[in-house]
Amino acid sequence: MNELTEQLAKTCGYNPTFGLGNRQIIQLGRASDELSAKGATPEALERFSQWWNNSIFYKRKAFPSPAQVSLMWPDFLANKCQCKTNEVTK
Fold this sequence. Notes:
Layout: H1 3-11, H2 22-37, H3 42-54, H4 66-78
């Protein structure tokens, strides 16, 4: 697992230490490839986590799925969703 995929797993609440199912591995691989093509970095994924947790519209107690991270990536980059703090995407 490369660094981007590892950070994506953390962002999605997966713990590779305990093993991942085939479905999770496939989802992570697809989303990681999509995010890589969009120029995502592990550091930016970490900021995405903070953005997701602080966003007024997307604040949830649950972790995002890999597909949700890929889908919401452009909004994160554009900071389209209102966040409690502007520090998240700086």
